[in-house]
Amino acid sequence: METFSYPAIFEQFPKKRILVAGDLMIDEYLWGQTERISPEAPVPVVDIGREDTRLGGAGNVLHNLRALGAAVDILGVVGTDAHGVELCQMLQTLGVGQQGILREPDRRTSRKTRIMASHQQMMRIDRESRQPISADSERQAVDFLQRQQQAWDAIVISDYGKGLLTTHLVQAIITMARQQGIPVLVDPKGDDYRLYRGATTITPNRREASIASGIRIADHDSLLAAGRKLLAELNLDVMTITRSEEGMSLFFPQDRVEHIPTMALDVFDVTGAGDTVISVMALCCACGLDFVECARIANAAAGVVVGKVGTSTASAEEILQRLQPQRSLASRKIKSLPELLPQVEQLRRQGKKILFTNGCFDLLHHGHITYLQDARKQGDVLILGLNSDASIRRLKGPSRPIIGQHERAVVLAALEAIDYVVIFDEDTPLELIAAIQPQGLIKGGDYRPEQVVGREIVEAGGGEVIIIPFVEGSSTTGIIERILANQKEREQL
Questions:
Q1: Could you tell me what percent of the chain has a pLDDT over 90?
Q2: Which residues have a Cβ under 8 Å from the Cβ of 73 and sit 6 or more positions away?
Q3: Is 413 exposed, middle or buried (0-12, 13-18, 19+ CB in 10 A)?
Q4: Residue 411, strand partner residues
Q5: Which residues face 300 on adjacent strands?
């Protein structure tokens, strides 16, 4: 039985300050459609319709920590080019302390451009420098560490092999942290982990641990051998190996091993799960939790993000819901508009295509299910605006709805096609659409786009109206009429 309150622990997160030492980059996505081959060369022509930039590399650790309310500083390196200026502006917008930013005139700030068509990556273009930072930059970094060393409750080293984390700098971080009693958690890179020697823990995945240890992890025994070897060779407090759908394993001195099972309900995308794990672990360590409990909470957070598409973060509420399973998965999807809007904004920043549809959905039937499944295929996130009981009574008369709004919301939220349900009391969803600003407004039946409520708002924002036909012969009114007819027949017998 737990000896603390999970909510009480999460309330401490905003009081903690974390240093992230890692390689920074800009991830750029160009989204478009391809319908023809270039006459200049046998390559597809991509007509770009949307562009999106976000922090990449160690930036995803920053996003995870900020999503949980922590104060964050960054130790990183950029060039003096326009991309470096843009990256620093992104850090400022995120609310990250930048006193530890190193600037090198001859360095190209890392920028990775991905060209996407029909939700598939067509090409990636890398513009970056990978050489180690200069001796002068190393001195600046160590000076920064010495000035600020008492400010941090934990340190995350996020290594992408772009040149910041030299052996000298990494060991300076670990030595300083050991002297101050600050936990250091490392997301490693490469096949030689000796530069991380003395850290609190490192968090390679199974493949990375196999390479670093020289032991192919194929079963339980080889997993134990690899974990124990790395623990001893690197003088760690604990060795952490993440194992995807199998959870994670923790290796302690005196041959103690703890296996933490996965808490993922659905796995759609493992992108960024490692960043989430190390971020949550660091915050929990900063709160003084036992490392096994840190891992359990981090594993719950990973279970949240792998259930989302693309690099994502987990909110404190989402992690708590995963740790407190008595709440149904369906109930977590039902949001008020004020609760929903921050989620929508976060998803939009991640480049997700937000879809919106609405309706009464009284007596859910085959036609509804088919329509919602088809709607979900049009983008990344489907939000359903559900008419309240009062709204339905005004639209359909005092005998409707048959099913109350809460029960309808729970049933709809249980569907895999639905990401969020929000109940509205107005006669039309116009206010919801204006607040959410979806990129796809979906309507069923024989509507023409110009007849759809909210069309002007969505198209003004660059979105589109999508009409999906209902299944013939499926309607709530028809079901009710058949029920009444059957009842009348029985009464006449």
A1: 62
A2: 17, 18, 19, 20, 96, 97, 98, 99, 100, 148, 151, 152
A3: buried
A4: none
A5: none
How big is the CA angle at 474 (ends 473 and 476), to the nearest 5 degrees?
130
Q: Residue 100 and residue 376: Cα distance in Å, rounded?
A: 43
Q: Kind and range of the H or E element at 458?
A: helix 455-460
Q: Indicate the residue type of 160.
A: Y
The answer to whether residues 432 and 425 touch, using CB atoms and an 8 Å cutoff, is no
Query: Comparing 459 with 35, which gets the higher pLDDT?
Result: 459
> By mean pLDDT, which of 24-33, 181-190, 480-489 is the weakest?
480-489
Selection from 207, 197, 291 nearest residue 251 by Cα:
291
Q: Mean pLDDT in the chain? A: 88
Q: Round to whole Å and give the CA distance between 183 and 185.
A: 7
Nearest in space to 260 (alpha carbons), one of 242, 236, 278? 242
Percentage of residues in the chain having pLDDT higher than 70: 89
Residue 300: its pLDDT value, please? 87
| pTM of the predicted protein model | 0.66
Task: Classify residue 344 as left (phi > 0), alpha (psi -120 to 50) or beta.
Answer: alpha
Task: Assign 487 to helix, strand or coil.
Answer: helix
Span 388-410, pLDDT tens digits? 998 999 988 887 888 888 888 98
pLDDT of 493: 60
Tell me if 320 sits within 8 A of 406, measured CB to CB: no
Cα–Cα distance list, 223 to 5, 215, 240, 296 (Å): 33, 8, 11, 19
Tell me which residues are annotated as active site: 275
Contact between 235 and 198 under an 8 Å Cβ cutoff? The reply is: yes
CA angle, 162 then 163 then 165, to 5°: 110
Q: Is the peptide bond before 14 cis (omega within 30 degrees of 0)?
A: no
Token code pair at residue 450: 């110009």
- Helix 59-67 with 82-94: angle, nearest 10 deg: 20
Nearest 5°: phi and psi at 490? -65, -40
Using pLDDT thresholds of 50, 70 and 90, give the confidence band for residue 268: very low
Contacts of 479 (CB under 8 A, 6+ apart): 363, 365
* Residue 230 CA neighbour count, 13 Å, CB half: 35
Ordered strands of the 17-22 beta sheet:
97-104, 71-79, 17-22, 154-158, 184-187, 201-202
Write out the DSSP string of 329-386: HHHHHB--HHHHHHHHHHHHHTT--EEEEEE---S--HHHHHHHHHHHTTSSEEEEEE
Residue range 164-168: average pLDDT? Answer: 96
